Known about the structure:
Strand content: 5-15%
Strand order of the largest sheet: 4-1-5
Helix content: 55-70%
Number of helices: 17
Structural class: mainly alpha
Amino acid sequence: MIQAFAAAFRTPDLRRKLLFTMAIMAIYRLGTFIPAPFVSITNVRACMDQSGTGDFLSMVNLFSGGAMTQLSVFSLGIMPYITSSIIIQLMRVVIPRFEELHKEGQSGTAKLTEYTRYLTIGLAVLQSAVVVSVANTQLFQGCSVDPFPDATPLKYALTILTMTAGTGLIMWLAELVTENGVGQGMSILIFTGIAASFPTMLIQVTQSNGGWGAALLVLALILAIVVVVVFVEQSQRRIPVQYAKRVVGRRTYGGSTTYLPIRINMANVIPVIFASSILMLPSMISTFGDPASGWVQWINRYLHSGAPLYFVLFAAMIFAFAFFYTSITFNTEEVADNMKRYGGFIPGIRAGRPTAEYLKYVSSRLTWVGATYLTIIAMVPVIVFSQMGIMGGGFGGTSIIILVGVGLQTVKDINSQLQQRHYDGFLR
């Protein structure tokens, strides 16, 4: 990785792209420290000293690099965009028009991207309204001071508008990185937010959970998870594909042998985000109920992040969503049709429907392994930290999978661009 970045900085074009990406990352981090209008920084810091972030908004705060607990203009981070992207992908199963747009190619993809942006803005308005309304009840868990002193409905509306505009600005910055920088813009900003939160969380562990001994234990567990994640994320099943020869005019095409790579974890970290988001809903709803009522007490007792029922539901949802999301993203019938259209076939398997059934059989077996891997990676840190009393929620498997995955993909992009600029032919 270090050699790839060093070689990239020696190439003028790539150096400009890397510096541009770093500048966008710096702007993104700067925005997390700019408070939203009518927010009292003194009261916010007092609330942060009095209490931590609740389970309801912990993931949003992690992905935003701590901007949520600072009530900054980038408080929502890119979570609205992530949520809207997932919803649009799921709508392809429900709405045939969305599936048709997906098959239309570049024009259909552009239309789906437009829908995603509109939905992102709508979700940003909703989420910013929730953040403002529960700031001193759930976000800071009953803080004694109000982060919005002397607030009026108009001031609340302006704060919501500012946070929504911050989400729109983040979308634009991510697109700039994708077009003019290195890597995928949204992934880079997610990486920036999570990586920026790690030092602060490590300091919190040393101050409240047994000093450097607990910190070393956390680092050892993180290192072990990183090794497992790198190994699994790089693993794939390669299915051989043979292309028949075709004569077009005076030229002959095909006749080559290649392979179809199928990753073990095709769903990536999406099932974990799904499961976490759904399990956060009861906690969010309970904040608007009477604390003395039975259903609120039941939720607070059995559905918090350290309860056994929470662990069971979390694992079951991750496992189920892994199969569900893989079936959406890896359409075996579409892959088989594309292979047949270009004269490709799997040796020993007939083209068309038999190929689709074979690919579905292979992908389902791999998904069992991938779902088990995701469940273990997501559950082990939570269980270990909960049993030892370590407040290290940000060190979960979700954040590590994202960091490692984005890092590996960025290095691959840099290496591919280096090969394009420093290609050595057969004749020298």
